[in-house]
């Protein structure tokens, strides 16, 4: 998808009822069915690139290249940018490794024409982009589980920010809640 206006940066994350975001493969899977798959595919189709850190790249690059299906095909074809000071030779199709200057590089990518840029999760990269004011939309899917331990959505040292609710609705599959926010104005 290409548009005339600058790209939007969408940060999309899964979060447990108690605010944990780490290792969603261990706790979110039972809640994702056909509705979530269709919604995720529709969101990917609005994107022209995915941004990720090295850890996310390592997880995704092991899982998705060999996975069949329309979602995997869309993800594999998508342009991917990895921010890492250690990754040198990415093997996943359409992947470029960018240096550590995340804020300036992402600001430049947003000025280019094209579809949305998407970031999955809210790890170090997501927190950096949020703190720099580069995130245009925050999409959270709340999964109805309490995870006993793990990285919380907000970590000590995060820059504070305010958000306006765009929409709140039942998720695409039973039990999920979909929340969409944009940065608060003024």
SSE map:
Layout: E1 9-16, H1 24-27, H2 34-45, E2 47-53, H3 54-63, H4 70-77, E3 79-83, E4 95-98, H5 102-111, E5 116-120, H6 124-131, E6 137-143, E7 163-170, E8 177-183
Helix pairs in contact: 2-4
Question: Care to describe what's here?
Answer:
The chain has about 190 residues and is α/β, with parallel strands linked by helices. The chain has a single domain, classed as Dihydrofolate Reductase, subunit A, CATH 3.40.430. The protein contains 6 helices and 8 strands. The chain has an 8-stranded mixed beta sheet, sandwiched between helices. Strand 7 and strand 8 form a beta hairpin. The mean pLDDT is about 90.
Pick out its properties:
186 residues; alpha/beta; Dihydrofolate Reductase, subunit A; eight-stranded mixed sheet
Brief summary:
The protein is an alpha/beta fold and 186 residues long.
CATH fold naming: Dihydrofolate Reductase, subunit A
Strand order of the largest sheet: 4-3-2-5-1-6-8-7
| CATH architecture label | 3-Layer(aba) Sandwich
Q: Name the helix and strand elements from N-terminus to C-terminus, one letter apiece.
A: EHHEHHEEHEHEEE
**Alpha-carbon distance between the two ends:** 30 Å
Please state roughly what percent of the residues sit in beta strands, choosing from under 5%, 5-15%, 15-25%, 25-35%, 35-45% or over 45%: 25-35%
Helix tally equals: 6
Describe the largest sheet. 8 strands, mixed
Radius of gyration over alpha carbons?
16 Å
Shape: globular
CATH superfamily: Dihydrofolate Reductase, subunit A
Low-pLDDT windows of residues: none
Helix share of residues? Answer: 25-40%
- State the CATH class: Alpha Beta
Sheet/helix structural class: alpha/beta
Number of domains: 1
The count of β-strands is: 8
Average pLDDT score: 90
